[in-house]
Design a protein that fits this description.
The complex is a heterodimer. By secondary structure, chain A is α/β, with parallel strands linked by helices. In chain A, 35% of the residues lie in helices and 27% in strands. In chain A, the strands form two sheets. In chain A, strands 6-7-8-3-9 form a five-stranded parallel β-sheet, sandwiched between helices. In chain A, strands 2-1-4-5 form a four-stranded antiparallel β-sheet. The relative contact order of chain A is 0.21. Chain B is mostly helical. Chain B starts with 5 loop residues before the first helix and ends with a helix. The chains are: A alpha/beta, B mainly alpha.
Chain lengths: 206, 227
Amino acid sequence: MFQTVALSGSRGERQLFSDVSVTVKPGTLLAVVGENGSGKTSFLRMLCGLLSPDGGAILWQGKDIRQLKELYSAQLTYVGHLNGIKDELTPVENLTVSASLAGDESSGAIVQKALEAVGLVRPVHRLPTRVLSQGQKRRVSLARLWLSTRPLWLLDEPFASLDAAATSYLTQRLHAHLNNGGMVVVATHQEIAIPTDSIQHLRLTR
Amino acid sequence: MSQPSMSEALRGVIRRDLLLAMRHRSDVAMSVFFVVIVASLFPLGVGPESAVLRVIASGVLWVTALLACLLSLGRLFTADYLDGVLEQTLLIPQPLAVLVVGKVFSHWVISGLPVVLLSPLLGLQFGLSGDSLWVLTLSLLLGTPTLSMIGAIGAALTLGLRGSGLLVALLVLPLFIPVLIFGAGAVTNSLAGIGSEANLSLLGACFLFSFAFAPWATAVALRIALE
C-alpha cells in the first residue's frame, strides 16, 4: 500500500499543495488532475523521491520512503514529463540499457516484443531515436512499462503525444497491471478508460 | 521483481556512456586534437632548443591535460539532465555515488585515457628522455582520473545554471592546482634526477582521497540540482 500523509509542497515562494493525504491500494489507480501549473509534476516527482516535500510524509508499506531509499526505488517505475531516452541510441538500445539498469529482463526478444506492444514496427527498432516523431519517442519511453515487474508506476502525462492506437495500448497495459495487483499514480488531463471502481481522483488547484 | 546488483548497475552506466561516446566520435576526436594541437604549438612557438623545451615540458603537458578535462566536463551530466536520463539514473535502486563512479570512469576513458596514451609521443616533441616519459605517463595515469572526479563535483554543482561552463572552470581550477603541482613536479624531478616517487605518491593520495570523497559529493550535488 502506498500513502501520502499531510503532504505539502512548493516551488520557490509558491505553495503548490498542502495537506494532501491519499492512499493507493493494490489494484487501484490514482489520477492526479488539475490545471497547468497546479503542481501535478512536482507531486509525482515528490512521490518518486526526486523532490523533497515541505511537510508530511510518503509511506510505502507503512514506512517512510526517506528511510527506505533504494529499497523504495526498487519498487517503482517512473515515466516522467521527459522521455528519459537517448536520441543517439536506437529504441532497442535505449530499452535494453534502461531495462538492465532497472534490473528488468533485457534480452533482445523481450525488448523487441515490448516495442511491438506499443505499436513500433521492427524497421523502427534499429533507427536512431532522433529520427522518430515525438509520439514514437513517447512510445519508446512507455515501452518500459511492458518490461517492468515493479508494483508502483508513477506516470507523468503518459498520454501526451500519443495517437488513439497508442492510447489504447497503454490503457490496456495499465488495466493489466491493476488486475495483477499493481498500483498506478498518473498525472493526466485525459479520461482513462478503466473501470471506475479502480480509479480515484486527486484534484490539485492553484 | 528483480533489482540490479551494484556491479550490474555500474557496468550498465559505463556501457551506455561509452556507447554514446562511440556515436559522438567527433567529440572524442576533438578532445584528442585539442591536446595534440596545443602541445604541438609550444615547440613551434618557443623554438627547437631542447633544453628550453625540456624545462617547460611537464607544465605544458599537464596544463594541456587539465584543459582537455575541463573542456569535456560540460558533457558529463548536461545531456542526461536535459533528456530526463538523469532523473531515471537517480531512481536506479543502487547508491547514486556508485553510479557517479561509472559516469566519471566513462568520462576519464573518453577524455583522460587518450591523453595518457598520447603522452609519450607528446613528450618526445619536448625532448623528454625514456625515464621522464615513463614518469610523465604514470603521473597522467594517476592524475587524470583525479581531475575527472574533482571536475564531476563542479559539473554537478553547476548543472542547469546559466553560464555553467565558466562557473565550472572557476570552481574546479583551484581544486586542480595540487594535482597539477604534483604531476608536473614528478616529471621535473625526474628530469633533474632527484626521483619522482614523492610526487607520484602524493598524486596517488590525491586519487584515493578524491575517489573516497568526490562521488559522494557529486551525488549530493546532483540531487540538489534535480530538486
